[in-house]
Automatic annotation (TrEMBL):
The Tetrahydrofolate dehydrogenase/cyclohydrolase catalytic domain, residue ranges: 6-121
Recorded GO CC terms: cytosol
Lineage, uppermost ranks: Bacteria, Pseudomonadati, Pseudomonadota, Betaproteobacteria, Nitrosomonadales
Function field: Catalyzes the oxidation of 5,10-methylenetetrahydrofolate to 5,10-methenyltetrahydrofolate and then the hydrolysis of 5,10-methenyltetrahydrofolate to 10-formyltetrahydrofolate.
Coiled coil (UniProt feature): none
Pathway it works in: One-carbon metabolism; tetrahydrofolate interconversion
Single annotated GO MF: methenyltetrahydrofolate cyclohydrolase activity
UniProt protein name: Bifunctional protein FolD
A Pfam family hit: THF_DHG_CYH_C
Domain of life: Bacteria
Subunit structure: Homodimer.
Record domain Tetrahydrofolate dehydrogenase/cyclohydrolase NAD(P)-binding: where: 140-280
Length: 288
């Protein structure tokens, strides 16, 4: 068996085309386009690339992107003041602060300062909580992107046994909640899990989100399983790889995402959709 490769870029491009059409329809109806504030601190090369990709996606779909490129020496209070101003700006529908942040800034303080109605990353505790109680609005981009990816390839997760490896607040935990919402029986694994290989071997869906290259061995994969690799790791030779041993895993899985070109593009596309949704919700009187 050789797995079918899930082309995240193609699926994301289709989603971006749909978002662009929705925004064009708004403009024809004399409604404004969504506005996204993108805040970058310092000159980290990887962060700059991520921000550039997000700004390019904004241009593609017609979202107005407002750039705030701040020095790495920016204080936490200065950043909080800017976010508070953007929370009150009626032309800004989404606020994105690119991580990682400089050491003098506490990330959780920043996340909680962003208005839940403009939290297009889906990181705010309020939005995670809405997902937990089955009333989602703005959902964490990467996990929701995975759900959209499964829908696009015609997979109904209901009733399947799903395993999420990694329990970060931004990816692993909301991923488990998304799969639970989709009707899966969900297991979360972490550094204290005793027998990861056994857990992987039993799963119909494996989502790797630990950030450790090659953590999931290909021979562990259940034949025919769906393997979603969220990990993005840069090796010493400069190559990018995921958390799954792709070469072996693709000979056992039914479906598998590559790294790069799998989940990454879906994260950006879902961010665009969240920005549009934030505007739509505000026009409806807001559900947040």
């Amino acid at each position: 068996m050789t797995a079918q490769i899930i082309n995240g870029k193609a699926i994301a491009d289709n989603l971006l085309d749909s978002i662009k059409e929705r925004i064009n329809q708004r403009l024809l109806a004399n409604k404004r386009a969504p506005g996204l504030a993108v805040i970058l601190l310092g000159e980290d090369p990887a962060s700059a690339i991520y921000v550039r990709n997000k700004r390019l996606a904004c241009e593609k779909v017609g979202i107005r992107s407002v750039a705030y490129n701040l020095p790495a020496s920016t204080t936490e209070q200065e950043l909080l003041t800017l976010i508070t101003q953007l929370n009150q700006d009626n032309t800004i529908d989404g606020i994105l602060v690119q991580s990682p942040l400089p050491p003098q800034i506490e990330e959780e303080h920043i996340i909680e300062c962003i208005s839940p109605s403009k939290d297009v990353d889906g990181f705010h505790p309020y939005n995670i909580g809405r997902l937990a109680v089955r009333q989602p609005t703005l959902r964490s981009c990467t996990p929701f992107g995975v759900i959209k990816m499964l829908e696009a390839i015609g997979i109904n997760p209901m009733g399947l046994d799903a395993l999420v490896v990694g329990v970060s607040n931004h990816v692993g935990r909301p991923m488990g909640l998304e799969l639970l919402l989709a009707g899966c029986t969900v297991t979360s694994c972490h550094r204290h899990t005793k027998d990861l290989a056994k857990m992987v071997a039993q799963a119909d869906i494996v989502v790797a989100a630990a950030g450790k290259p090659g953590l999931i061995k290909g021979e562990w994969i259940k034949p025919g399983a769906i393997v979603i690799d969220i990990g993005i790791n840069r090796l010493e030779d400069g190559r990018i790889c995921g958390d799954v041993d792709f070469t072996v895993a693709k000979e056992r899985a039914g479906w598998i995402t590559p790294v790069p070109g799998g989940v990454g593009p879906m994260t950006v596309a879902t961010l665009m959709e969240n920005t549009l949704l934030s505007l739509e919700l505000s026009e409806q009187g807001g559900a947040i």
